[in-house]
User: Which sequence fits this backbone?
């Protein structure tokens, strides 16, 4: 099998693969191209002029939607999700290396969250926070805090329910990556550190962390990019404000100018920028680690 | 670089340590799933038995939400709305599953067994996964300039004289929905299947060759059975995503095609939470049955 590099089979498969890659990337290239059209540009070819017109339009806002504000909300949420995903996944990854009572159950729940239809999770979180609202309002009424009751809106929000909804989607990826890392991890380095009198924290900080650093960066990348594009789990669990992808989903039916392609170019550039940054950082950390071992 | 480790690994090697410390370290992650996954699921189940009026939810125990969903399903020659919606969702699931399975398997097979250099292998694998980290909605609307009424495909067909009128069923149709699903989710097949294939002992392939097996025989009798775990995991991903979807069917179907996810979404937006919850419980039951059937499939084949 490995010697038939130039057999017809190889070329057939290679052609199939090339077509698949074209299928993956082709449409995306086209909308990036179309987003740089002149003011007369439309949703399809031919390309009419070259300009940044539609990006200016985008900055002014599309209809009633304030793109800048949605962008900031999504960035803020994405950064929070990244931080929590990295911290909680690494901690849990360490926990699973030890004797963890109920570890199998926890693992089962995490995998269940990964494959659970998102609309069900979203509905559940939305329900939870609405019932919580009801409870809080009753409590305020009982306590006679009328001004607080009037001022109270809802517990649903970007950094409460939406953050939780995103974490149910990003943490499974984070934990699975930690499992993959520790499956291949040689505990001899840690034991050596312990034998030399390192505290558990020193052992982690100076031995384990540098070794797993490239993968930790990978977990962060998953956290940010998955949150940045999340729609299904956020949809019923966010309340009054919207994230950028949710606004974008609404705009697909109302905006009929290349401005929506410009928005596509912007969000894709952010995603790809984060992916490139993470891969570069992971590669650099990996290289530094190899140098240190020599 | 950590490739998305979707495949479930066995519990990692245990290093000596105190159980209490482990418990504290797992606590933040565990609390997230209790607060935002287990309690919400329990609430969905509970509220599906509640009553409601225009203003509020009325706690209690009633089966009327479930009766409302299956109203008219037992009688008449015509299918009721719920059955029709499930039938349509099943149709999408089956089509998308078949196409992503064949495509994903072929791509993985090429990467795992025909690309020799490890560097090229990693590079091409990453190339397949990068779009996964970009926006799904953008990837959906990126089909508009190609498939629209005045899109590239129609322009070419008209130019070549194949058709005299623009083809209408290319966009906002069942076709575009399936196309978008395949575009978005073939990655969920490639990663686990590629992962399984990379674990296959290469000497088994050589043994098959030495015993005179043709490339097809090796593929069918050695590689496919040994990639089983990856195929099952990929299938579970793709089927559960399509079964619960409302975003892709919404955007690519021009908001005209029904799906269970969409029914739940619409009922939620009208604040009919008990109805939406009952629908969610039924959907969950159906999805669990599919997963159960898929895992049984593995066991049965192992027995034979």
Assistant:
């Amino acid at each position: 099998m490995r010697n038939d590099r130039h057999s017809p089979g190889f070329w057939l498969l290679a052609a199939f693969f090339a077509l698949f890659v074209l299928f993956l990337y082709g449409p995306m290239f086209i909308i990036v191209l179309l987003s740089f059209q002149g003011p007369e540009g439309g949703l399809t070819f031919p390309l009419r002029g070259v300009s940044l017109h539609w990006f200016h339009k985008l900055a002014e806002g599309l209809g009633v939607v304030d793109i800048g504000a949605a962008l900031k909300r999504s960035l803020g949420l994405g950064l929070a999700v990244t931080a929590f995903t990295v911290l909680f996944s690494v901690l849990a990854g360490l926990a699973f290396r030890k004797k963890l009572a109920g570890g199998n159950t926890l693992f089962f729940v995490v995998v269940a969250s990964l494959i659970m239809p998102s609309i069900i999770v979203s509905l559940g979180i939305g329900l939870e926070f609405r019932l919580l609202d009801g409870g809080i309002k009753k409590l305020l009424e009982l306590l006679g805090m009328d001004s607080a009751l009037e001022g109270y809106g809802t517990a649903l929000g970007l950094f409460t329910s939406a953050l939780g909804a995103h974490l149910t989607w990003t943490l499974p990826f984070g934990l699975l990556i930690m499992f993959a890392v520790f499956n291949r991890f040689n505990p001899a380095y840690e034991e050596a550190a312990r034998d030399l009198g390192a505290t558990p924290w020193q052992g982690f900080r100076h031995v384990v962390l540098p070794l797993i650093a490239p993968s930790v960066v990978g977990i962060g990348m998953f956290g940010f990019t998955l949150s940045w594009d999340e729609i299904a789990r956020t949809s019923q669990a966010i309340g009054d404000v919207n994230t950028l992808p949710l606004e974008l989903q609404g705009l697909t039916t109302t905006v009929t100018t290349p401005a929506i392609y410009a928005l596509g170019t912007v969000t894709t550039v952010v995603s790809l920028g984060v992916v490139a940054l993470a891969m570069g950082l992971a590669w650099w950390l990996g290289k530094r680690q190899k140098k240190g071992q020599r | 670089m950590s490739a998305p480790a979707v495949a479930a690994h066995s519990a990692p090697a245990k290093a000596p340590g105190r159980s209490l410390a482990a418990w504290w370290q797992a606590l933040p992650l565990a609390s997230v799933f209790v607060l935002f996954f287990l309690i919400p699921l329990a609430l969905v189940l509970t509220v599906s038995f509640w009553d409601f009026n225009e203003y509020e939810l009325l706690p209690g125990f009633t089966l009327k939400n479930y009766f409302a969903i299956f109203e008219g399903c037992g009688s008449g020659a015509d299918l009721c709305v719920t059955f029709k919606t499930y039938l349509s969702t099943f149709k999408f699931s089956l089509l998308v599953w078949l196409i992503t399975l064949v495509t994903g398997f072929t791509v993985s097979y090429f990467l795992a067994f025909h690309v020799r250099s490890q560097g090229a292998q990693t590079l091409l694998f990453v190339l397949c996964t990068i779009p996964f980290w970009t926006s799904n909605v953008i990837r959906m609307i990126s089909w508009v300039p190609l498939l629209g009424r005045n899109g590239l495909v129609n322009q070419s067909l008209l130019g070549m004289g194949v058709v005299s009128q623009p083809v209408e069923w290319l966009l906002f149709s069942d076709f575009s929905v399936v196309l978008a699903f395949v575009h978005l989710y073939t990655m969920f097949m490639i990663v686990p299947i590629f992962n399984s294939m990379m674990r296959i002992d290469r000497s088994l392939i050589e043994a098959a060759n030495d015993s005179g097996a043709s490339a097809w025989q090796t593929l069918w009798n050695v590689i496919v059975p040994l990639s089983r775990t990856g195929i099952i995991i990929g299938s579970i991903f793709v089927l559960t995503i399509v079964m619960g979807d409302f975003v892709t069917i919404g955007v690519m179907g021009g908001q005209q095609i029904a799906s269970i996810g969409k029914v739940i979404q619409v009922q939620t937006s009208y604040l009919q939470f008990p109805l939406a919850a009952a629908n969610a419980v039924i959907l969950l039951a159906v999805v669990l049955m599919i997963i159960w059937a898929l895992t049984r499939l593995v066991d049965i084949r192992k027995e034979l």
Summary: Chain A touches chain B through 114 residues (CB under 8 Å).
